[in-house]
Design a protein that fits this description.
Blueprint: E1 2-4, E2 6-10, E3 19-24, H1 32-42, E4 47-52, E5 58-64, E6 69-70, H2 74-88, E7 92-97, E8 100-109, E9 112-118, E10 123-126, H3 129-139, E11 153-156, E12 160-165, H4 169-173, H5 179-189, E13 191-201, E14 204-211, E15 216-219, H6 223-236, E16 244-249, E17 257-263, E18 270-279, E19 284-286
Parallel strand pairs: 3-4, 5-7, 12-13, 14-16
Antiparallel strand pairs: 1-19, 2-3, 2-18, 4-5, 5-6, 7-8, 8-9, 9-18, 10-11, 11-12, 13-14, 14-15, 16-17, 17-18
Helix pairs in contact: 2-6, 3-5
């Protein structure tokens, strides 16, 4: 049997840009090795593999980059949810992920189908001086480049991300980092991305997310990092009074992306909303194509 690999650009901005993800809507019978090989062949930062559950709207999801499995991926979740909505109609989904249960709601509007994921509880902790120094060395940045209003932290909403705020948009735009050095550091620390950002205004942030552990220089839109970032701002006391903020990502890659982030009142969870657009399909995936590990 075979299941097609769908392609969606998630967190598009006005129908443009976004971060492409692969989606396999029925990965029943696919081995771990086959999923990893498929993700490597697709070549995107992540591909989502869904196995339908016993009840409507319930699915188990696994996420693979070209190099490894990750516990959770926001943009691939949005891509998969929009793909399901286009097939089955909008509504509520409950996804079982390695990071925990994730609820997603989809809706149709004038700009197409959107998906809103509710993250697992978001947490943050200060980064150590050694972690910060090693990261700055890999980035080729100096302590003076950082915005003192936003201390370095490790934030999580399913995956760990180092969060670094910089003073200027020019510093963020000029990103040319040491890929092997940052890859080795992030693998040792267990970080999925380094979330680099600048505050455009109190409720709008431009961001870039290097992703060398996945074999990807940079992510155009990172929903998991956006959720973790929302939790970080909440913990820091710098979240907008409305609890809503916008993360703009991917512009420096030529793929502008828009992620809408909302802190859930009375909860540590964070909602992230984005649109997704279908791209031309890839070849089918053959189940049991490789031995499991």
């Amino acid at each position: 049997m075979s299941s097609p690999v769908l392609r969606y650009a998630a967190f598009t901005d006005g129908g443009r840009g976004g971060n492409p993800a692969g989606v396999v809507l029925d990965a029943t019978g696919l081995t771990e090795a086959a999923m990893l090989a498929t993700a490597a062949a697709v070549g995107y930062s992540e591909t989502a593999f869904l196995v339908p559950g016993a009840a409507p709207g319930q699915h188990t999801v696994r996420y693979f980059s070209p190099l490894a499995e990750v516990a959770f991926c926001g943009h691939a979740t949005v891509a998969a949810a929009v793909a399901l909505a286009e097939r089955d109609g909008p509504g509520r989904l409950l996804l079982a992920t390695a990071a925990g249960p994730v609820e997603v709601t989809t809706a149709s509007g004038p700009d197409g189908t959107t998906a809103t994921l509710t993250s697992v509880p978001a947490t943050s902790r200060p980064a150590t001086a050694a972690q910060l120094d090693a990261t700055l060395a890999a980035l080729g940045w100096a302590h003076a480049d950082l915005d003192p209003r936003f201390p370095a932290a490790v934030a999580s909403a399913g995956n760990d991300h180092l969060v670094l705020g910089v003073r200027t948009r020019a510093r963020l735009r000029d990103l040319h980092y040491d890929f092997p050095a940052l890859q080795q550091l992030m693998a040792a620390e267990g970080w999925t991305t380094v979330h680099l950002f600048v505050a455009d205004d109190p409720a709008t942030f431009s961001a870039r997310d290097p992703f060398p552990p996945g074999g990807v220089v940079e992510d155009a839109a990172t929903g998991a990092a956006a959720a973790a970032f929302g939790g970080y701002l909440r913990d820091l006391g710098r979240a907008p009074a409305t609890g809503r903020l916008t993360v703009l990502q991917g512009a420096d890659m030529g793929s502008p992306s828009r992620l809408l982030v909302e802190l859930v009142p009375g909860s540590a969870r964070v909602r992230v909303t984005g649109a997704a657009t279908r791209l031309p399909a890839l070849a089918p995936v053959t189940r049991h194509a490789a031995a499991g590990r």
